[in-house]
Design a protein that fits this description.
Bound molecules: iron/sulfur cluster
Number of strands of chain A: 2
CATH topology of chain A: Arc Repressor Mutant, subunit A
CATH superfamily of chain A: Winged helix-like DNA-binding domain superfamily/Winged helix DNA-binding domain
Largest sheet of chain A: 2 strands, antiparallel
Radius of gyration of chain A: 17 Å
Number of domains of chain A: 1
Distance between the termini of chain A: 14 Å
Oligomer: homodimer
DNA sequence: GTATATTAAGACAAAATAGTCTTATATATT
DNA sequence: AATATATAAGACTATTTTGTCTTAATATAC
């Protein structure tokens, strides 16, 4: 897995938030219900995004969370960096230690090209993109998760 | 991380084995020393490769492990499949549940292309490729692992 | 100000992954 | 046969990741 489970939750919640109006706060309970993620766990995940100032939170009645910027202004990568940190950028996802510049392994050129493409994609795609074709079934039910081809 | 730590160990040991003669068995102790991996842990990892018939093992004096086939005949992907299974092939490494064919998310086309490239690379590269430019420093010391760019 | 709704924080528990250690088994040498 | 050398197997521990629960803090409404 390229991204932690925690990060995935953050991405799914962010995408869902991006499909909602920024005029109102959405409660984490509503998000956790729609996404079928544990409320308490999602709360902790979103706290990271709030601290990173990708989300804004508000306590009390009519409180909740909302995007801190417009959906088109928040990149997929912003969420990844906030939750998983920058290891994706700096470490070889193949996991082979001793990195590329000094002593490249035979896969390095190919791999680093592919990896750069992934990073570019994550830096290109915004929450608006994710929200555009948003399909609640897709982002919601884990039951679809088994045995599907990618 | 795309591959488990266990899988990385298997790959590093396999690459090292590929740089050695198939006429002799190499002891796991020798591999674990050269790669700076716990002997007992590496033993368990290599047992998987032996069960998958990528390696052959032999007990007793002058025993050890060796490649079951020529290095050019064993793919990077063979090792990955043996140790991590086929989740890399079937699951979205982005982790978003509910997969691509029925309800593709907006990233699907891009992502599935990139992912296919990774899979193709892993199916293309053989242990011989890894062994060719083999550099023991690179595959050995974790101290190089921090802060290098990929 | 009291009750209610909400996020924040942190202690705690469970599960998955990684790593260690001991014993069993097979082989070779003498 | 006895000893030494090796992998195989499995119990055990440690660490990380994931998930749960309780309490604190903050805001609203009445
Ligand atoms: S040389 Fe490149 S591909 Fe190979 S292990 Fe290092 S960073 Fe990864
Ligand atoms: S649609 Fe494709 S990219 Fe998106 S989550 Fe599913 S498999 Fe992954």
């Amino acid at each position: 897995m390229l991204l932690s489970q925690t990060c995935i939750y953050g991405l799914r919640a962010s995408a869902l938030l991006a499909s909602k109006s920024r005029a109102d706060y959405t409660t984490i309970r509503e998000l956790s219900d729609e996404l079928d993620i544990s409320f308490h766990f999602l709360t902790k995940v979103l706290q990271k995004l709030t601290k990173s100032e990708l989300l804004e939170s508000y306590k009390g009645p009519n409180g909740g969370v909302k995007l801190a910027r417009t959906a088109s202004d928040i990149k997929f990568m912003d969420v990844v960096l906030s939750i998983d940190g920058d290891s994706l950028l700096h470490e070889c996802a193949l996991g082979l230690p001793g990195c590329g510049i000094l002593e490249p392994c035979p896969m390095h050129d190919q791999w680093s090209g592919l990896k750069q493409n992934i990073v570019t994609m994550m830096k290109d795609i915004t929450l608006k993109d994710l929200a555009n074709n948003y399909n609640s079934t897709h982002l919601t039910f884990d039951s679809f998760n088994k045995g599907n081809q990618v």
